[in-house]
Amino acid sequence: MTSAAAQNYLKAIYTLQEQQAAVTTSALAQYLKVSAASATNMVKKLARARLLHHSPYHGVQLTGRGEKMALEVIRHHRLIELFLARTLAVPWDCVHAEAEKIEHVISEDLEDRIATFLGDPTLDPHGDPIPTKAGQVARPVYPSLLDVGAGQSAVVRRVSDQNPEHLRHFSKLGLVLDANVDVLEREPFEGPLRVRVASGAEHIVDETLAREIWVSPLTGQTRTGMARVKKSK
To answer: Which terminus of the chain, N or C, has less C-beta within 10 A?
Structure first.
């Protein structure tokens, strides 16, 4: 079970397992944009190969061997993304699609060469952790921008790479990795946020987009507010 299709399913299950306790075949089909019948058929094949466990009431869960294979493909994918971004200046909204085409065909030797060339990096261009050669991966937990309260500041640590249009929009707004952002105000009931980025520009970010940005909160007040306090002393 080393086909590209099988690897894509294992990678998708691993990704979904990070987001939810139980991965259903319907959620898997929706994520991969395939029919429910196709997803069910592949899940059965992977279960027979002992790469996952499947229960009608408990969903799909990777076995140890299945997770190891998933992490290997994810390592290929994220190393390729970073290589394309750093060496060829491929925009961060394009590297995901390009890596999808290449991740299944590179050799282990080429993987090692890319990792060494890049200095054994730990993060891809979107802030996603790159698994080690041994299959270990950091799992930092960050709140989303939507969880940051009004009057607070944060640093962008990770963004979703699933929608290229959203990534292009984030770039336009200045919401990129390691960027500082101040949440100036927010509408109630998880409404849109008004934020200020490092350039001083202010933008409105809706709920959907705010959920796709994960951050490290800085303090209980905005950086501008902190500056005013320091000047007054």
So the answer is: C
Overall fold of domain 4-62: Arc Repressor Mutant, subunit A (1.10.10)
From CA 9, how far away is CA 39, in angstroms rounded? Answer: 8
Judge whether 4-62 and 145-227 match in fold.
Answer: no
Residue 227: is its pLDDT beyond 70?
A: no
The fold for domain 145-227 equals SH3 type barrels. (2.30.30)
Domain ranges of the chain: 4-62, 78-139, 145-227
- Cα separation, 212 vs 161, whole angstroms: 9
The predicted-structure confidence for 98-150, as pLDDT tens digits, reads as follows: 999 999 999 999 999 999 999 999 999 999 999 999 999 988 889 999 999 99
Q: What whole-number distance in Å separates Cα of residue 6 and Cα of residue 11?
A: 9
Tell me which architecture the domain covering 78-139 has in CATH.
Orthogonal Bundle (1.10)
pTM (2 d.p.): 0.86
Quick: pLDDT tens for 11-41.
Answer: 999 999 888 778 999 999 999 999 999 999 9
Secondary structure element (H or E) that encloses residue 45, with its range: helix 36-48
| Per-residue pLDDT at 228 exceeds 90 | no
Q: Which amino acid is at 80?
A: I
The overall longest dimension of the chain from CA atoms, in Å, is: 69
List CB contacts of 126: < 8 A, sequence separation 6 or more: 81, 92, 96, 158, 159, 160, 161, 167, 177
